[in-house]
């Protein structure tokens, strides 16, 4: 039994990167799995038992918009690393389409792929991947050297990104002379030096201790604000995903469980798995007023203070509790609902 997989036409859409029906199957004769409805529907264990194959990525489809931070989150073994490697074909997908800037990446030959990897994508790895015998500045300019750029240009560009990531003064040190956090700054600088269209991060901060990790997350938020690059960020850490992601894809056993913004995952979990995943998130720091506004009751005063629907519950708490009238949630002059002490306390008490 063979099913024909159908995908939409390569993009008239605004997506920078479009992933359509992507599969990566490891094991013997992997290509039969995506096209075989019965095999494709088997659980991870049953598929392995019947075929000896593991579907690390299962029928994933999503678009990444230009300038967006797209986070892929999931527990160990959910397929995140395989997915991010499939995006540049460092791991060869088994089925599906990858459209980047309108180009079908699966049709690209080795030469074209190498060019794309050098000029359009940069990767930041968990274990930094720095060259130990090269100074910071030479690590940062390495990609430019490979691309054949002249010495003066390389140096100028490397210095620019070294300044950008806060490494000025460390140019002539070797990686082993730097702390983990500093080494990952070198990794970031090296990735930015190529001026790629997409930065791919594979759990870049997992090896760092929690304080440095938070500092680096803030650094990525700042860099994103400054350089506006499209980012695909892999993590198993929910708070990291919520802090960085414009949109989050939650994966389990290779498949998508939910796509959404952080507040959508927390406010409207798709199933019990997601509910359990987000259970300990301080809801007041993630949910916005649009999630808790309700219809005004008959006779309720509507002359209270106004706030927008995107204000975080935490930020609105004081105003709501101090006001003797319900706070109005208003967008473009339209009343979306009201919020009183009850609604606020239900969230804050749960946080
Ligand atoms: N080369 C391979 N051969 C066979 N199975 C593989 C291979 N690479 C990955 N897998 C399997 O695919 C599944 C997904 O692995 P992957 O490393 O992508 O997950 P992950 O979410 O990145 O996990 P982690 O955070 O632990 O790296 C796992 O079951 C893994 O054992």
UniProtKB/TrEMBL annotation:
List the GO biological process terms: glycine betaine transport; response to osmotic stress
Q: Does the entry feature the keyword RNA-binding, yes or no?
A: no
Give the family per the record.
Belongs to the ABC transporter superfamily.
- Species the sequence originates in: Kribbella caucasensis
Start and end residues of each ABC transporter domain = 42-278
What SMART domains would the database entry show? AAA
| Keywords, ordered alphabetically | ATP-binding, CBS domain, Nucleotide-binding, Transport
Q: Which PROSITE patterns match?
A: ABC_TRANSPORTER_1, ABC_TRANSPORTER_2
InterPro entries recorded for this chain? AAA+_ATPase (IPR003593), ABC_osmolyte_uptake_ATP-bind (IPR051921), ABC_transporter-like_ATP-bd (IPR003439), ABC_transporter-like_CS (IPR017871), Gly-betaine_transp_ATP-bd (IPR005892), P-loop_NTPase (IPR027417)
A single GO CC term for this protein reads: membrane
Q: What is this protein called?
A: Glycine betaine/proline transport system ATP-binding protein
């Amino acid at each position: 039994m063979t099913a024909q997989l159908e995908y939409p036409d390569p993009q008239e859409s605004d997506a920078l990167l479009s992933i359509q029906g992507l599969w990566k199957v490891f094991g013997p004769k992997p290509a039969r799995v995506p096209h075989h409805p019965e095999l494709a529907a088997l659980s991870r264990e049953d598929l392995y038992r019947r075929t000896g194959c593991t579907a690390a990525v299962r029928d994933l489809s999503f678009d990444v918009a230009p300038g967006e931070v797209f986070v892929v989150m999931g527990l160990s073994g959910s397929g995140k690393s395989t997915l991010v490697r499939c995006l540049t074909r460092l791991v060869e997908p088994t089925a599906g389409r990858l459209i980047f800037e309108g180009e079908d990446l699966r049709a690209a030959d080795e030469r074209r792929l190498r060019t794309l990897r050098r000029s359009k994508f940069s990767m930041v790895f968990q274990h930094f991947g720095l060259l130990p015998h090269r100074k910071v500045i030479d690590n940062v300019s390495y990609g430019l050297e490979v691309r054949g750029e002249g010495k003066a240009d390389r140096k100028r560009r490397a210095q620019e990104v070294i300044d950008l990531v806060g490494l000025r003064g460390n140019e002539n040190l070797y990686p082993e002379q730097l702390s983990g956090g500093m080494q990952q700054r070198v990794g970031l600088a090296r990735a930015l030096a190529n001026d790629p269209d997409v930065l791919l991060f594979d759990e870049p901060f997992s090896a760092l201790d929690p304080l440095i990790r938070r500092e680096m997350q803030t650094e990525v938020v700042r860099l994103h604000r400054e350089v506006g690059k499209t980012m695909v960020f892999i993590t198993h850490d929910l708070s990291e995903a919520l802090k960085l992601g414009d949109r989050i894809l939650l994966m389990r056993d290779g498949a998508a469980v939910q796509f959404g913004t952080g507040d959508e995952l927390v406010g409207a979990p798709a199933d019990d798995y997601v509910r359990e995943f987000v259970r300990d998130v301080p809801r007041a720091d993630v949910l916005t007023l649009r999630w808790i506004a309700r219809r005004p009751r008959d006779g309720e005063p509507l002359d209270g203070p106004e706030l927008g629907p995107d204000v975080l519950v935490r930020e609105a708490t004081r105003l709501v509790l101090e006001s003797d009238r319900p706070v109005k949630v208003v967008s473009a002059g339209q009343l979306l609902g009201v919020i009183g002490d009850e609604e606020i306390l239900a969230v804050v008490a749960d946080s």
